[in-house]
Amino acid sequence: MTSDDQQGIARKFYSALQLLDRVPHDVVALIARLSIAAVFWQSGQTKVDGWQVTDNAIYLFENEYRLPLIDPWLAAHAAAFAEHLFPLLLVIGFASRLSALALLGMTVVIEIFVYPDAWPTHGIWAVCLLVIIAGGPGRASIDYLLARSFGVCRTGR
Fold first, then answer.
1. Crossing angle, helix 119-135 and helix 96-109, to 10 degrees?
2. Parallel, antiparallel or unpaired: strands 48-49 and 52-53
3. Which of 2, 77, 101, 115 has its CA 20 to 30 A from that of 88?
4. pLDDT of 157 above 80
5. What pTM was computed for the model?
6. Among 32, 136, 46, 131, which residue's Cα sits nearest to residue 84?
7. Which helix (H) or strand (E) holds 52?
8. Mean pLDDT of the chain
9. Three-state DSSP class for 48?
10. To which H or E segment does residue 58 belong?
């Protein structure tokens, strides 16, 4: 392979990388919001039957999860509430950064106190949440529309 061939391959590779630079944050943020919302919503659904937290959910908090400093009954109810509220807010893009921060806090608690060996899964969750926290929810969100109406939108995102 000649030097010209190598340079041609390098140019093509660099051009392909430049295409990846064009992926808009709005698309990445929307996918992050919807996918992580689904994870927590589905978890929340396992804890309720209609509007009631199930006895099984409370049992898990008493016997398997065993979080320190919080009553299992309260923890089960708080988790069920949070796993429904924050995903809903992420889907519509309202209070997105705060919702993502709350779910990141839950993820950290789950990782440290409940399933410490599940760090690869929790790492993926954390990345989705950090994309939203650090970069915002994107333009397909109520947050963006509110910021735009108040004239406080950041440009370049």
1. 160
2. antiparallel
3. 115
4. no
5. 0.88
6. 46
7. strand 52-53
8. 94
9. strand
10. helix 55-60
